[in-house]
Amino acid sequence: MRLPPNTRRLLRLVSRHWRDVVGERTATSLRSRAKTLIATTTGSPCVVDDLSSSPAPGTSHRNLWADWFTEMTYKGTSVVGTCNGLVCLYANRAPGGAITVIKPDTPFSGLAIPPLPPPPSLTADRCSLYNRGRQEAYSFAYLPTTRRYSVVHVPCHVNRSVYDAVHVFTLGEASWREVPAEPAARCDLAYGVVSVDGATYWVAAPEGTEKVMFFDLEDERVMSITTLPSALSRSKDGGSWHLAEVEGRLGIVFTHASSAVDKIEVWVLEGARGGRKIRWSRCHTPTNNPKKAKRGVVNITEENRGTRVTNMDIAGYDDVWRTFGYVETNEPLSIYKINLRDQLIST
């Protein structure tokens, strides 16, 4: 716990035991210090420092950007994701959607990610005009075993462009890598894209049948999760669901259509994601009947609605709000900067 981040990366190479100990202790420390980052599509991201009590309106959150100049510089960007204090931004107003990874305390020393290659289906006369996909198709991922960060673009169909591959850019490398995927694995962006525990998850819905796909960053394979919560079968009766991160694991949030039953269920994936021993456990559900509560289930009733953490101004009715777990660390970015000229010479 006393080791600085740049030293931890080297000491993990001593042995497997050291790797596991450093990785486990670091992850535990980061989770215990996590704050909530609130990001919108039109406003500046804010950090909620205190979740322990009900604050006075507007007193518990602060702007992620320390000054007006930084805020103007990153105006028009959206948060793709956060990992260990690093923030990945997508420029909505820039042609092609530029991607940048920054540290909020040193925002002007960020890493600019090379543009995503155009899909093969794009004709040459449209290459200069095409959009490289909406923000929702990107995710910011972290692989604990290697302590490497990657920007992941999932296979999808956006803006008349078709992607049938996962594209990965790992910080410290010079270009994107492509991992082929079947057309049936194209992401339905309405379900969300989540990166957690060394994998990126999305939902494919070929011919109306949903399935959860994932890209394993360690093996660099595209696979599917064969077992889903039984509650999702009710989505055909008007319910809906989407992916989420729940306490460092993949979660599914299911909303019932009928008010006669529980309105929301949250299911969490447990076990090996690529094997047969996976199972889904229900960890949160609203209920007005205390007798229905089970171990590990949180009761949310009319009397216990939760704790208000902050009040924020709404920029517009069409604004989209997202929350991320945010940890302020000294994770360095400079070690990932590469000299492209030297790399080209060496290859």
What's the short story on this structure?
The protein has 347 residues and is mainly beta. The protein is 11% helix and 35% strand. It comes from Hordeum vulgare subsp. vulgare (Domesticated barley).
Structural write-up:
The structure is a single chain. By secondary structure, the chain is mainly beta. The chain starts with a helix and ends with a helix. A five-stranded mixed β-sheet has the order 18-19-20-21-22, with no helix packed on it. A four-stranded antiparallel β-sheet has the order 3-2-1-23, with no helix packed on it. A four-stranded antiparallel β-sheet has the order 4-5-6-7, with no helix packed on it. It is globular and about 50 Å long. It contains four helices and 23 strands. Strand 16 and strand 17 (221-225) form a beta hairpin.
Strand order of the largest sheet: 18-19-20-21-22
Categorize the overall geometry: globular
Q: Which secondary-structure class do the elements indicate?
A: mainly beta
SS summary, helix count: 4
The value of Rg in angstroms is 21 Å
Helix share, percent: 10-25%
Percent strand equals 35-45%
Count of individual beta strands: 23
Distance between the termini: 39 Å
Written as H for each helix and E for each strand, in order along the chain, the element string is HHEEEHEEEEEEEEEEEEEEEEEEEEH
Mean pLDDT: 76
* Main sheet record: 5 strands, mixed
Give the low-pLDDT segments: 339-347
Domain F-box associated beta-propeller type: 130-288
InterPro entries: F-box-assoc_dom_typ3, F-box-assoc_interact_dom
Organism: Hordeum vulgare subsp. vulgare
Protein name: F-box associated beta-propeller type 3 domain-containing protein
